[in-house]
Amino acid sequence: MALTPSDASRLTREVCAFAPIVPVLVIDDVDAARPLAEALVAGGLPALEVTLRTPAALPAIRTMAEVAGGYVGAGTLVTPKDVRAAKEAGATFGVSPGATDELLAACEKEDLPLLPGAATASEAMRLLSRGYDMLKFFPAEASGGAPALNALAAPLPQITFCPTGGISPGNATAYLRLPNVLCAGGSWVAPKNLVAAKDWSGIEALARAASELGKTQ
After folding, report:
1. Whole-angstrom Cα distance, residue 128 to residue 120?
2. What are the backbone angles phi and psi of residue 136, rounded to the nearest 5°?
3. Cα 84 to the chain's mean position, in Å?
């Protein structure tokens, strides 16, 4: 039986609730995948998004899926082929920059919970009409940032978001304090210079600081 949109949203919401920040990872070196995942999980960020932007992405997902305590997802899903490859690699959830009927159907067929992207009220409403109420707000900063996302809270209170795109330690809290935000996606917790230097303790420290970000009243 195919995964229903409501079940997909429930499962992605559970993953998004693990920590306030979901690391968005672009991995070039497969050898770095395991220690990177271990450092992020140890720092309190168990949900990891590996973007399908490099040849190393799928092998990295396979490796990271073996790390205890981690929940590895595949980002930048665009086609049904991406969905099948991500599922075969061991991804437990998917993330897309937008959404098409073809992509949604593929994720449902493959039983891969999807966090679909939306940047406007119309896109969010279309996904809601299909049964998706846990969405990615992308590109967050370019689409108006926290004020734009806050403006969607009143007319669409049944939708929860994970904003991604331009999120940093400086603006993350502005998003996380919104009533319709559960978590945010960010790449700053795994900067390329620290990955290249194999500074896993440094990455763990960044993850720990990010895991302590929370909603303020």
Report:
1. 12
2. -95, 130
3. 18
Segments forming the whole domain that contains residue 31: 5-208
Model pLDDT, residue 214: 76
Say if 138 falls within a structural domain.
yes
The domain that holds 130 is classified in CATH as 3.20.20.70
pLDDT digits (tens, 9 = 90+) for 42-61: 999 999 999 999 999 999 99
Decide if 85 is inside a domain: yes
Give the integer Cα–Cα distance in Å for 69 and 60: 16
Q: Residue 208 CA to chain centroid, in angstroms?
A: 18
In whole angstroms, give the CA distance from residue 62 to residue 23. 17
Spatial separation of the C-alpha atoms in residues 1 and 40, rounded to whole Å = 34
* Helices vs strands, H then E, count in the chain: 10, 9
Count: domains in the chain: 1
Residue 183 lies in a domain: yes
Question: Residue 11 domain-assigned?
Answer: yes
User: Catalytic residue numbers?
Assistant: 49, 136
The two structure tokens encoding residue 121? 């009220």
3-state SS assignment for residue 188:
coil
Give start and end residues of each alpha helix (H) in 55-96: 57-64, 80-89
Question: Which stretches of the chain score pLDDT less than 70?
Answer: 1, 215-217
